[in-house]
Fold this protein.
Amino acid sequence: AKFFALAWEAGGGGSMLVHPLAKTGKQASNIPLVAGHKAAVLDVAFSPFNDNIVCSVSEDGTAKIWQVPDDGFTATQMQSDAVQTLVGHRRKVGTVQFNPVAENVLATSSTDYTVKLWDIETGDAKLSIDGKHADIINDVNWNYDGSLLATACKDKKTRVIDPRSGDVVQEWMAHEGIKGSRVIWCGKSNRRRSRTAGWKIR
């Protein structure tokens, strides 16, 4: 990887920092930020195919695709113009993850209880997974070959979804506490683990 990215608390809208890993040490106080959202940035993800492509999602209900210069952003460059804006969710967008094997495909989840699969070249939502979740989606994760999605939801259920049809192929009660949970696939296997204070493996 060339860069790391993180959400940045700033006035006047949602910002994030995209910084080259090679630039270490103390940085200037006017470090350049990417400030294209109208509300706080909630998650960021880099393309697995291109280290210079990063996506941010926000409380403003959008996802934005950014092209990062090879040397990173500088204070003299414009960092408010995204190369693509993905519009379709009705409420804030909380998670984003690129498909690990299909270039230009990513998944987002929103507090409108939907998961959307996007073609970032065209900016179109190719699939909207509606009516499968009864509450806010805490996490979305692709399996290693990009053929399935797992979601963790505030309704305390973990679901496995076929991204071609949008159907839930498996679901179960995971952690039954009140804390938000996360879900991740265990490498090149069909096992998943969800986490709050501990782990459950299915």
